[in-house]
């Protein structure tokens, strides 16, 4: 049902050194996209980022996604990296 992609992410620590950590990315399902688009369709069409409070409320219906993941997905829709049909 979900496709998982293994990725190696580089992260800098306080001293400027990088460390590598294996991360698994999970694609957004159709249901998750529908919930996101129905909750924020007006914001996406206006090209304005919704408030943190609204994102937090919407995150309750997307339990497997963190607030930064939701914010990044919304930003991708608003910037045009992902098409909103």
Verbal overview:
By secondary structure, the chain is an alpha+beta fold. The protein has one domain: Arc Repressor Mutant, subunit A (Orthogonal Bundle). The chain has helices at residues 30-46, 52-59, 67-79, and strands at 4-12, 18-26. The longest helix is centred in the middle third of the chain and has 17 residues, at 30-46. The chain is globular and about 40 Å long. The model has no long low-confidence stretch (mean pLDDT 86).
Which features does this protein show?
85 residues; Arc Repressor Mutant, subunit A; two-stranded antiparallel ribbon; 3 helices; 2 strands; globular
Topology at a glance:
Elements: E1 4-12, E2 18-26, H1 30-46, H2 52-59, H3 67-79
Antiparallel strand pairs: 1-2
Helix pairs in contact: 1-3
The biggest beta sheet reads: 2 strands, antiparallel
Summed up, the domain count is 1
Compute the separation of the termini in Å: 23 Å
Provide the succession of SSEs.
Answer: EEHHH
Rg over alpha carbons = 15 Å
CATH class: Mainly Alpha
In short:
The chain is an alpha+beta fold. The chain is 45% helix and 21% strand.
């Amino acid at each position: 049902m979900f496709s998982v992609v293994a990725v190696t992410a580089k992260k800098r620590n306080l001293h400027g050194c990088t460390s590598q950590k294996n991360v698994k990315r999970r694609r957004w399902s159709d249901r998750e996209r529908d919930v996101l688009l129905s909750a924020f369709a007006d914001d996406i069409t206006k090209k304005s980022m919704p408030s943190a409070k609204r994102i937090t409320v919407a995150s309750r219906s997307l339990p497997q996604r963190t607030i930064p993941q939701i914010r990044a997905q919304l930003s991708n829709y608003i910037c045009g990296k992902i098409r909103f049909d």
